[in-house]
Design goal:
This protein has helices at 36-48, 102-105, 118-124, 126-140, 144-164, 168-207, 229-235, 237-243, 264-267, 270-291, 309-320, 333-336; strands at residues 3-11, 14-20, 25-29, 67-74, 79-85, 90-94, 109-114, 215-220, 254-259, 262-263, 295-300, 325-330, 347-352, 355-359. The chain is of the alpha/beta class and 363 residues long. A hairpin with a 4-residue loop joins strand 5 and strand 6. The two termini are 29 Å apart. Residues 3-356 form the RecF/RecN/SMC N-terminal domain.
């Protein structure tokens, strides 16, 4: 599955664009400020209901307009669209039907993004890593979104008890459910992480062949794997009361990546970290593809940043074997040169002042 066309109106500086994409590889060039990232952002918005650059959705509306519209069609002619106005109203349409919420968008396409900033965020703290793993789980393990939603409700109740110092039967009830849900989620996650780790290894061999053998993924479930959660919670009950929220449990999971016993962000160069993140993102996209439910899409903004020619050549080898649709931007074609396949199995676009045009061979 892939996105075959995109239409946007009044999204950032893209006043109106309508474009047909290649099912596998789309290469986009343009000067600084032309609108390349905005194009990727519009695709990201349809997969997440939010931006990867700002939490203020009103920033996405063109300065001279009071609303924006983004819509895509996939290769089955399935249509997703969203309109957002200045007053905060959303109108979400899926195949012509408009009884949907923002969260419904994410069920239809799995969009992952790599920008010059994302690897800093990714290695900066557990939040981004949790989001990343949860996106994969959400699409690959079909029971996961219900499980996670129910767990969140229990977590909120348990936190409310801790905050208001409710004890006795009411607390015990939520505490027990919290432990059950945490364990269930941890079991689902550990199985997924194992799959992800296997797939990651395959892509690291292509993207970071000299380092791949020594990179290891560590998963922590949110409490010591050697102990029962209930025992950990009992032991820390005073601390939890002091803080007024749950300090251990499935919401506190993390994944870390080591290279020869050190965190990779401390030993790998920026370019290597970026390649690592690409391997991880590709690995997850492939797992999503194997479920054959929705289109996995990877957006890579500014491929030239941090990556030298041999890194980009390695990426080209990975792309050849990849089962997902890619959108890659760069300032000019030089940065894309190693990635351009010999066969005409791609499309190339140029963005100028918010207008996108397809470049045909010889342009
Ligand atoms: N709400 C908005 N309305 C109109 N223009 C906007 C809005 N938000 C941002 N812009 C402008 O849109 C232009 C495109 O920005 P974008 O980040 O997409 O460029 P880019 O091609 O990715 O550039 P770079 O190569 O520097 O990353 C910029 O000039 C920016 O100032």
């Amino acid at each position: 599955m892939s996105i075959s066309s995109l239409t946007t109106s009044q999204f950032r500086n893209l006043s109106y664009i309508s474009v047909n994409f290649h099912s596998k590889l789309n290469l986009i060039t343009g000067d600084n400020g032309s609108g390349k990232s905005s194009l990727l952002e519009s695709l990201f918005f349809l997969g997440h209901g939010k931006s990867f650059r700002t939490t203020k959705i009103e920033n996405l509306i063109n300065n001279v307009s009071d609303h924006f519209v983004v819509s895509v069609k996939d290769d089955r002619n399935y249509q997703l669209g969203v309109r957002r106005d200045n007053s905060g109203n959303f109108d979400i349409k899926i195949n012509g039907d408009s009884k949907f919420r923002l969260s419904d968008l994410a069920k239809n396409i799995a969009v992952q993004v790599i920008t010059p900033e994302t690897f800093r965020l990714f290695f900066g703290g557990p939040k981004e890593r949790r989001k990343f793993v949860d996106l994969g789980l959400f699409h690959v393990e079909h029971q996961y979104s219900d499980l996670w939603r129910d767990f969140r409700k229990v977590l909120l109740q348990r936190n409310a008890c801790l905050k208001t110092r409710i004890t006795g039967q009411q607390f015990d009830y939520w505490n027990e459910l919290f432990c059950q849900y945490s364990q269930h989620i941890a079991d689902v996650r550990v199985a997924y992480i194992e799959q992800l780790s296997g797939e990651l290894n395959r892509w690291l061999k292509i993207l970071l062949p000299t380092l791949s053998e020594d990179i290891v993924l560590h998963y922590s479930q949110g409490w010591s794997s050697k102990r029962k959660l209930i025992d950990v919670l009992n032991e820390n009950s005073q601390r939890e009361k002091k803080y007024g929220h749950s300090l251990f449990g499935a919401h506190k999971f993390d994944v870390k990546f080591n290279y020869k016993k050190s965190n990779i962000e401390q030993v790998l160069s920026r370019g290597q970290q970026k390649l690592f993140l690409m391997a991880l993102t590709i690995a997850q996209a492939n797992l999503i593809f194997n479920c054959q439910q929705i289109a996995p899409i990877i957006l890579i903004d500014d491929i030239g940043a941090e990556l030298d020619t041999s890194s980009r050549t390695a990426l080209a080898r990975a792309i050849e074997q990849l089962n997902c649709q890619l959108f890659i931007t760069a300032i000019d074609t030089n940065a894309l040169e190693p990635i351009i396949p010999e066969q005409q199995n791609y499309k190339m676009f140029h963005v100028e002042h918010g207008v996108i045009s397809e470049l045909k061979q010889g342009d």
